[in-house]
Design brief:
By secondary structure, the protein is of the alpha+beta class. It is built from two helices and four strands; from the N terminus they run H-E-E-H-E-E.
Length: about 70
């Protein structure tokens, strides 16, 4: 009887365990140019998992001769 109860409990929890939790995130980027001037931009990332939001935010980062941009959630 306990084994059957365990199997039923696991069967009911499976959908909860394997669904991804999608949320809204905000990616904040700080840019610094060659003269030392800084600016901050924010980008809304809607309906994404944490991993997808991290990847999307990282895509906003850039470095070149004139400026450096660092982004984080």
């Amino acid at each position: 009887m306990k084994r059957t109860g365990l199997i039923v409990a696991l069967a009911l929890l499976m959908p909860v365990l394997f669904t991804s939790c999608k949320k809204d995130f905000v990616c904040t980027c700080q840019s610094t140019d060659a003269l030392g001037n800084t600016s901050t931009e924010t980008y809304p990332l809607t309906d994404q998992t944490r991993a997808d939001a991290d990847d999307a935010c990282e895509a906003f980062e850039s470095d070149n001769f004139w400026a450096t941009r660092n982004c984080h959630l």
